[in-house]
Write the structure tokens for this entry.
Amino acid sequence: MSTALRLRCQTKGGLKSLEGLMPSSTIADLLLVISKATAIPAGRLKVKVGFPPKAIDTSDISRTMSDLQLRSGDKITVDEDMASGEGNPGATAPQGGQGRVDTDRLLQQQLASGAKGILQRKVVPADNSCLFTSINAVMTDGSVNPDSAEELRQVIAGVVSSDPETYSEGFLGRPNPDYVRWILNKDSWGGGIELAILANYFETEIAVVDSQSARIDRFGEDRSFSHRVFLLYDGVHYDPLVMEAADSTGSIVELRFSSSDDGTMLQAMDIAREAQSSGQFTNMEQFSLRCLVCRVPLKGQKEAQQHALSTGHQNYGEYRP
């Protein structure tokens, strides 16, 4: 049985631990883990190992940690390469300070080697239940059904109420019964707690592509589920990511992917970086909210926090003035 590697990553921001890598993990896995730990886009990573540090060739993303002769205790040195790298998968070419992610070559290689299609965003309503609608879409047939949100809220309420020891006030940020009532409210937003519960419920890893930070957060990653689904998150709103046919039909060919599918993960990373570089995320300081207790309109996260402190109100929803 393989043992997880204990690797350290030295960056300009300090020393970080790299979790979840095995001797059989690929360079693609390594780049994903480093990118998550450092917030540096995978396409801009310059990875070195040893002393004096020697650059690792990351052009063949299918090579494994064993191929690289990486062992527990090794320290990896990471820098951010702002230049356009020909041989660097996912490298970004700067254009006036903002570059478009150049992963077309990789995507074309994937399609030519038998990949089924290209990962695309499928829009769901911005009705405060977008997380649940999106998860229902990727867990079923890809259809957008806002009515499904109530059922998933009930699932979460049932899990939380049945295990008050795990889902304590300290964990939930409010008493267990209060949380249950809150999550059943159709205006309450879902987030990390709900994603973790639903990943376990469906026994499927949920990979959230964050367009604001250009990173991917994986819920259920530690459970070794055999399948993975993708959501796109812009700081406020969730949409499902589905695999559409590469032809002109636009038909959905896949919703759930093997958890070892590195090609689709690369496409998801490309979407995150492209969305970030083109500003496709919500500025939380300018976003309009409404207190769902007293109906007062608010502007941005700072006003919401001040309102919460002065009134004790904690329930907010999207608001379009």
In short: The mean pLDDT is 76. The radius of gyration is 21 Å. The longest strand covers residues 238-245. Residues 5 and 21 are 6 Å apart (CA to CA).
